[in-house]
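Hello again,

I reread your note about wanting to compare the complex against the isolated chains. To keep things tidy I'm splitting this into two emails, and this first one only covers the full assembly. Below are the input lines as submitted, including protein chains and any nucleic acid or small-molecule components. They are followed by the predicted structure of everything together. The single-chain runs will come separately.
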Amino acid sequence: MAERNIVEAIRDGLAFEMERDPRVLVLGLDVGRLGGVFRATEGLLERFGPDRVVDMPLAEGAIVGSSVGLALSGLVPVAEIQFLGFTHQAFQQIGPQLARYRARSYGRFGCQVTIRAPSGGGVRTPEFHPDSIEAQFVQTPGIKVACPATPADARGLLLSAIRDPDPVLFVEPQRLYRQGREEVPEGDVVVPFGRLRVARPGTDVTLVAWSAAVELCLRAAERLAGEGISAEVLDLRTLVPLDVEGLTAAVARTGRAVVVQEAPLSAGFGAEVAATLQEECFFSLDAPVARVAAWDVPYPAASLEGWYLPTVRRVVGAARRTVSV
Amino acid sequence: MRRLLQPDGSLVEGGCSRLGPEQLVEALRWMLLSRLVDARATALQRQGRFGTHSPVKGQEASVVGSAMALDPAVDWIAPSYRELPALVRHGYPLERILGRSMGRSPAATRIPDGVNVLPNQVALATQLQHAVGLAWGLRLQGRPGVVMAYFGEGAASEGDSHEAMNLAGVRRAPVVFLLMNNQWAISTSREVQSAGQFFRRAEGYGFAGVQVDGNDLLAVFEAATDAVARARAGEGPTLIECVTYRLSFHNTTDNPRRYLPPGWLERAECEDPIPRLEAHLAWLGLWDQGARAALEAEVAEEVEAAVQAALAMPPSRPEDLFDQVYALPPERVRRQRQELLQHVQEP
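Full-complex prediction:
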């Protein structure tokens, strides 16, 4: 075991898989000589050579579209899209192509492709860099969506993603990339898809989140503890597959839930969580499921993002209201 | 524009055909089969027994001439949706292609294992990106295949077309971009798509571009074999623009009388590639009415057998919705499958 932050854990996971499986190759913008804008692929070019660590022309559609083809040829591409917001320019290749290729060919062709993309706000990035649009890909069946929030999960879920015969969108929390280290296993340790993690146990209210919002919820839970409210924090880890059983069992224990997302409120994945909870455990709920989200406006300039993103205060407020019902 | 075959069936001065008598008849056979499938599929569609059909009519020389440059054992086809005879020649059985449009079981109609054909693509030009990745991947693995990617002059306006050709040049991918310039993207004419010549784009991407008479089987075959040879030798991609004419509708929902200029179709029909190839066979002394009748009868029998085989295939089942969406389906999707099956069984 070694202490790693999220970027280091991802880099280590990529190297581990490339060592283990000669079919794995990494492609994207600036992933070679530079090692990626966040250095997630640093050292891989020197270690695995230019056929397996490929700097691509500046075209997100080509990065994803050629990954489909590389997978058809029998390779296992791990594509990096520099920021999740840039998948707007590859959407036609992700939702309608990568995700549907197996269905369209009725199983004749599968695409074992992972798309890694940093996402989320709070680090004063330029326009489109912080967009949390992961829910868009939940609406394109055929692709799985993983959203790790810790270094150990980043590595373990990445190993699962690369090995999954289905395509995976792997959303990385850029705000947490270098925020804190933890013990990360070094060997062949995978974190399976579809099993949520209890990030902090509690008994009064359940805070449900994924990606960087998990860290926000942990801070909120700490504040709530000071007020005598015991908040449990759930990290969904993967949106597809969703751990429906784990989610409903956990929320049924407290009877109260607050779903927290960095994406705009309407039709975000939080809505899916809230709907699932009322379908699956309505009679165990003691209060309406609350949502804390970004507003239904475009992601703003850096000077405004503090007002845009969910805050600890808003999460705490929602939890207090939920507990007081 | 490269042309070898004159409308009267003779070769242009100094022209030389790379196809022997047997290959010429084989090509004509595929072209006649394609034309007949168009007629049969359109009739079945009008009877409500066939889905939307996009005829190849008019473009048979471009499709067949390019496909004949490929070795189905190692090469790949990344189709759009108007390349039926190429797919059949490459090993995708006709009855499966027809069965798919007739709503038969997706398991029974899918591309067979070992057949190097990608699924039809109606999200225009997206397949070019896949073709480039596939070609690049084959080269990385030291495998011998070349990928032939089909698209139209309309799809050439899509961003994916630019991205794919650009990447192919950078990676020297063994891919042939077969641009079928049939003059019409539904009702949008060629002039509306681009102010430039399509084949000249290749220069900007750093590889060869050629323009051929797409109604001339010999010229298409020559350009395609040269392109495939270059790709196989590691010399990178080629863009081939086949100048041809769509002699039918865009698909069975379309009515070209609403937009074709008066006389356009009549003029285009003079360029029909099938009579031209037959004239060439006659010019070579290889063709007469008897030979044509025999070939037509043979092709008609094959098409009818394929239609009957397609009709005999099992129908689609409700679980087909779910069974090949994921290799490892999420629990929630498994439950939805159960729910549908229960719903279907309820009285």
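For quick reference: The longest strand of chain B covers residues 175-181.

B.
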